Amino acid sequence: MSNQSKLLLFASIIGTLLAIYSIMDSNKNFSSLPSDVVATVNDKIIPSERYQTVIQLIENDKRDGLTEIDRKMALERIIEEELLVQYAYQNGFLEADDLLRKSIVRSVVDSIVEQSISVLPEKEILRDFYQDNLPVFTLDEQYRIVILSSQDRSDITAAKQIWQQSYDIQKLENEIESIRQLEIPSGFISKLRLGTLIGPLLREVVLSIRIGETSKPIETIYGYSIVTLIDKKNKIVPEYSEIQEVVLQEFRRRQREDILDELLIDLKRQSDININNSLSD
User: How confident is the model over 43-54, as pLDDT tens digits?
Assistant: First the structure.
């Protein structure tokens, strides 16, 4: 990748947040710029911190030291980016392009949240969070099942006897043509997913039988069905030491939601929002 391409890439990494913020931040015609301002574009401040960030990114990617040409090119790319952002803002691109608006929102959210949760919480805080939210980290019961169905009640009754002798699906289907096995995962299925996969009626049947047991024929949307519970895993509460990373991720997810909620509440409080109630009736 050429130096020019790298500079374009690194300048864009600074993000939409700083670009949009700079649009709103005015400079009152500096005759000489202060040390924390590297340039102004149409009276919009480009902070020195932004320039130094770009320079640092370029420097980290170069084996040799930065040249004066590199520094000038970095500043030129930042100014060009600012001009393009101002052009987009002035010509209504932000209002007209939904994808662009969503991209800006994501950038703002990610930037604010990442800055707020960059500090690793103390171990005691994470342990307390784990204890207070044990149901979240508990592994639910899991079941391995086979469900056989037929439109003919007498066929499913006969199939149950053959099935319990060998548990051979191929043999069963060869002997009774109307028998079909319900297509569900062959591995363990969590208790939570059972209802979604097989419906509430069959779910209750699964929960009512023991390992190795086959239910009596019941009428279902598939015709008539029998359920065999092949195996079951009981509920497991993992130790904190086993899932520290999972706990941390969940802690940060909750923290992210709290931060965003507080931010939006604060923004709404500071903003003048008018709603046409006649449209919401």
Answer: 888 888 888 888
